[in-house]
Amino acid sequence: MDSFSLRCLIGVVLSLAIAARAHKRRSLDLSGAIAGFLVMSIHFAASYRYGAMLLAFFFSSSKLTKVGQEKKRSIDEDFKEGGQRNWIQVLANSGLAAILSIVTSAMTNGQDKCLDANESKVVTALVGGIIGHYACCNGDTWSSELGVLSNAQPRLITTLKPVKKGTNGGVTLQGLVAAAAAGFVIGITYVMVGLLTTKCDADVTWRQLLVVPLALAAGLCGSLIDSFLGATLQFSGYCSLRKKVVSRRLPTVTKISGIDILDNNAVNAVSVFLTTVLTSFACLHIF
What we know:
Blueprint (H helix, E strand, L loop, with lengths): L2 H22 L5 H17 L1 H18 L3 H7 L11 H21 L13 H27 L7 E2 L13 E2 L1 H25 L4 H6 L3 H23 L2 E4 L4 E3 L6 E5 L6 H23 L1
Antiparallel strand pairs: 1-2, 3-4, 3-5
Helix pairs in contact: 1-2, 2-3, 2-5, 3-6, 3-7, 5-6, 5-10, 6-7, 6-9, 6-10, 7-9, 9-10
């Protein structure tokens, strides 16, 4: 069995087990479990590193979602017990990376390649995009899940004025540090798994270590982009009836910030796309 076929087999078996477990533990609903199985299988078939980054994002985010649930219930208008995700949220957080994984694998005939612009600028840009994608997703999730638990009052990223917790675009120092840490986790996952599974020339291998600070920066940058979009293109208002910040205009809601153009899923998708593109360009200059 060649390496590509082996990755496909391992990907299918592992993805099925993880998706079933996530559905049982209510991290994913049925549609999310099916979508998760498909995108996870694609990631592992293309590269163990892509699959590992997806799992680092999924497991860490799922754990953090369950931290401080009582406090989050009082703040989040769309709070779900266990943070259960559906197929839309799964694809918003992994769909683009799955497409990039397929294209990269097709261009390399199923071979797992290191970041090396001297060998292929296109492949390097695509792999960099996958790294940026998960650094952004992880950064945004860690920032949201841990930032909301901060004792500090958030400030709107566009004006730095204090706002209520739960306001789209509100940031805290704790949330920003969490975003950077989340990007670091993605970077170190890529490097460590790559050292174990991917063979490259010695000088190319050592250069892969630069992925760690790059992913850290992408996690922070992605969170900042997400916050800026949330503060400007996503409506936030305080509902006097529910006593919490909401994202819908109602007679009982007083506007805090933003205009009603994007919802939360759209904000996430746009920020992921922009961070993916920026990281791709950065990789062309670094590697």
